[in-house]
Amino acid sequence: MWTLLVLMIISILVFGTSLFENKNDKLFNxxxxxxxxxxxxxxxxxxxxxxxxxxxxxxxxxxxxxxxYVSLGLLGFFVCLSIEMVFPNSFxxxxxxxxxxxxxxxxxxxxxxxxxxxxxxxxxAPAQKAAILIGLVGQMYLxxxxxxxxxxxxxxxxxx
Length: 160
Fold this sequence. Notes:
The chain is mainly alpha-helical. The chain has helices at 2-20, 26-53, 59-86, 100-112, 125-158, and strands at 91-92, 121-122. Helix 2 (26-53) runs antiparallel to helix 3 and helix 3 (59-86) crosses helix 4 (100-112). Residues 101-150 form the Potassium channel domain.
């Protein structure tokens, strides 16, 4: 609770002062990215914790399972966007006419799902390491968290 409150205050201060300052300032962009990342990290961890600790599998747990996966994709997106901000041109193949954020959002989810079409490539070492991390997190979530929910559902069904 306190962490979210502090994060909200920092975000309000950064966004409020960025209205009066130069919007392209790297410091404000970095703080904005960090606050987004922290917010989605906290939300993702809370969703995963609630799904993990659920005793009964119902529609809310299933929605939580899906929401946790979507949140992990957003975390992957913010990681990729942060890498692109620090190391420009870390990702090659984003189609002309597509914004950088749309391309990186697509890339993060395609990597999280381990589809890997190969149309967008990580060309710097941090981008390549992020791709590995995003893919591993996606697989671990599907294998571990989903298996736990399915196991709870099977136990719940067999006890009726």
